[in-house]
Amino acid sequence: MKQKITIAIDGFSSTGKSTIAKQLAKNLGYIYVDTGAMYRAVTLYAMQQNYISDSHFNPEELVTNLYKISLSFKFNEELGFAEMYLNNTNVEATIRTIEVSRLVSKVATISEVRKKLVSEQQEMGKNKGIVMDGRDIGTVVFKNAELKLFMTASADKRATRRYKELLDRGDKVNYAEILHNVQERDRIDSTREDSPLVRADDAIEFDNSDMGLKEQFDRIMSLVNMRL
Fold this sequence. Notes:
This protein is an alpha/beta fold. It has nine helices and eight strands.
């Protein structure tokens, strides 16, 4: 039996981190954790409680009430991946809306939020055999991960992918708004004081601007096999 490793995938928004991470986890029989979904769920809670909107943000209220937030992943056999639950309610679809996307980077700058979620993520991965994607997996959550990837692509390519994804889902979206959202999230994620988005020194940078899913998967699986 092969040893189990930890695979940390970081990178900019809409680079397909979750897609490739799900494929890897399924192929390897590993646990997959979408940390972005966790931050989105906290953001959704803050929106529901009116702690945050496009016009205001009250981080103190959010921090005071963090203890009321329970996050969990439950595997959906029909879909083949685990869905995000917020306080025992399935929020997988709701957290993917553009409304949540506009606000999630602001919530992710709050140190107390990051501390809570990083602790939960480390607990999930303590036995290895996990694929986790996010912004600070290789730099903070799993500094000793056996394989670290940093996904990147041009802002235009990422916005186009996100636009098509939301259109296919039936959402009413505007490409210019999507592009602005991608660029703004890049700015906030890369400049926040607590755990900014940066490539770990030992991470392999992976630009998939002009790469299909199969080529991506094959190339990354070869990297995985080198470490097993």
